[in-house]
Amino acid sequence: MSENRALVAHQFDTAAQQRGAATLGMWIFLATEVLFFGGMLMAYTVYRVTEGEAFAHASRAQNILLGGINTAVLLTSSLTMALAVHAAQGGRRTRSVMMLASTMALGALFLGVKGVEYAEKFAEHLVPGVDFHWAGPDAGGAQIYFILYFLLTGFHALHLAIGIGVIAVLTARAARGRYSAAYSTPVEVAGLYWHFVDIVWIFLYPLIYLIRVYR
After folding, report:
1. Which of 86, 88, 150, 201 is the S-S candidate for 184 at Cβ 3.0 to 4.6 Å?
2. All residues at 6 or more sequence positions from 211 whose CB lies less than 8 Å from its CB, including other chains
3. CA–CA distance from 181 to each of 83, 99, 191, 197 (Å)?
């Protein structure tokens, strides 16, 4: 049995068929994720219209510098993930490992910065609940804003943490020479997931941080 054939699961006839099935499966999964985040974004949109002024005031409590840093971090991680996929497809093991590890490190950095943001919100009593305190106008609308903030960014962070775990496994396998020009499907599929998580943040950043001016 050839090495290429050994990498093909028994339910597939060829490596190309296996790759196509894996890619299609990931796209279907990402479609369900669009629905998942889409529901929360729809709720955000409704309340943004009905509580627009409150949302604009609440947005001013965000640390726009940390949000901008995290945006740059994730955009860079998309680049390193794309380079990891390209390296894996070309059979360049060392470069693939380096780019996967860089992507994982950037993802961890994002979560660290987000943790600092969350700590600020706890210290300022901006976490929705009995301890929530808002000195400005429209306290009710501001609390809705922060509920949606924690839901959206929390689930995004969870997805990112899962992605880091997946990439950690891929990095270990890539270091052992598991992937080559003939078989790089897991890295390619993980790349699709990672880019999706990054795209979600591209939507969240302006919605959460850049609505300070209400008209």
Report:
1. 88
2. 48, 55, 56, 59
3. 14, 16, 16, 26
Q: Whole-angstrom Cα distance, residue 96 to residue 48?
A: 43
Note the pTM of the prediction, 2 decimals: 0.90
- What whole-number distance in Å separates Cα of residue 187 and Cα of residue 104? 13
Numbers of helices and strands, H then E, in the chain? 7, 0
What amino acid is encoded at 118 in this protein?
Y
Topology of the domain covering 31-209: Four Helix Bundle (Hemerythrin (Met), subunit A) (1.20.120)
Contact between 145 and 40 (Cβ < 8 Å): no
Q: List, for residues 63-100, the tens digit of each pLDDT value.
A: 999 999 999 999 999 999 999 999 999 999 999 999 99
**Residue extents of the structural domains in the chain:** 31-209
Measure the CA–CA gap between 68 and 84, rounded to whole angstroms.
24
- Residue keyed to tokens 């709720």: 43
What is the residue type of 166? V
pLDDT at 135 over 60: yes
Q: Which residues contact 188 (CB under 8 A, 6 or more apart)?
A: 19, 23, 85, 88, 89
Which pair of structure tokens corresponds to residue 39?
A: 């529901």
Q: Does residue 54 contact residue 145 with C-beta atoms inside 8 Å?
A: yes
Phi, psi of 180 (to 5 degrees): -150, 180
5-53 confidence digits (pLDDT tens)? 556 666 776 777 877 888 899 999 999 999 999 999 999 999 999 998 8
Looking at 14-146, which runs of residues are DSSP E strands? none
List, in sequence order, every residue forming a beta bridge with 180; answer none if it has no partner.
183
